[in-house]
Each structure stands twice: as structure tokens, then as C-alpha cells.
Input
Amino acid sequence: MANPSLEATVDPNLIAGFIAELGSDSSATVPLLQAIQTQYGYLPRTAMDLVVEQTEISGSQLYGVATFYAQFRLKPVGRHLIKVCHGTACHVTGADRINTSLHYQLNIQGEDEDTASNGSYTMVDVACIGCCSQAPLIVVDEEVHGNLNGAKAQKAVRMHARKAGEELPKAVKQSLKS
Ligand code: FES
Output
């Protein structure tokens, strides 16, 4: 379940502006979803409700498209993004262990959750990003950190958090050694 404190405050005028610009029939469904996601980083429920109220697009159409395309996200996103590469080279050298280690560090619990409990970081799995000689690796915002294990991945996130002035969740008790 999404952390309610991460929910965006939606400006109804902005949504009305998107509809005026992009249209209100079903052909505007994808452009509207893209505009909303670009604005908020995900598709807030309030914004989706406004689109349904103010256009000819039904709720089932809107959510059908939003859940069909992987580019759309229905949950709030953290202030920073950690991409964990799961391409072949990263997979065979330990991407899963890095995932486990960072989930622990960021106190991300539950199979469907991907965002730290304090909203600092969101983790996403990505395909090969073309730096296989540094496998396994993560990208924190724009920074690439390669040749990792679980402990090094935690250290990379800790250093990033220090530079970005972010707190890591309190549940961290120890670093993993793997
Ligand atoms: S598989 Fe991870 S960078 Fe290529």
C-alpha cells in the first residue's frame, strides 16, 4: 500500500489545462497520462479522478491503459531513484543480492513495495544499461556505481544520501557483508 505521506498535491487547474491542450476523447488517454506522470512522477489518484470527471474517458479505460504500459506508475515515487541493473552480466554477478541488501537498508518491506519508508529512495529494476564490464551495478540518480556487492551497494547509497542531505530510514541496524 502506498505511503500516504508521499502522495502528491494535485493542482486541478493544471489537470484542466492538460485536458484543454490534449483533448478529452479517448485518443487523448495516453498523452494525458504522460503529461500527468511527467508532472508528478506517477499518476496520483486525484488527478485520475479529475480526468474521468472532465473527459469522455471512463475510469476503466484510463486505468486499463495506465496498467497496460510499463512506463506508467500508480504509486508515489521517492525523491531519488536507484536503478538496479538486472541484465545478464549483472544478474549472474549478484544483482539479486544487491536488491536484497538495499531493500534491507531502505526498510522496503512487502513484495509490491519499492520505496523507502521515509520516501527518500525508490528502487527500480532495469535491463542492461551498457556498462557490463562494471557488473553488477546500480545507478543512483545519474551516478553509476559498479563492481558492487551488497555492502558496497549500501555504502554507495549512504554516500549519495550524505551528499543529497537525505536521511536513510531508521530501521538500518547493520550492513550486509555479502
Ligand atoms: S548487464 Fe548490467 S550493465 Fe549490462
User: Anything to note?
Assistant: The two ends are 30 Å apart (CA to CA). The pocket of FE2/S2 (inorganic) cluster is lined by residues 85, 87-90, 128-132, 135, 137 (CB under 6 Å). The CA atoms of residues 86 and 127 lie 5 Å apart. The chain is about 40% helix and 10% strand.
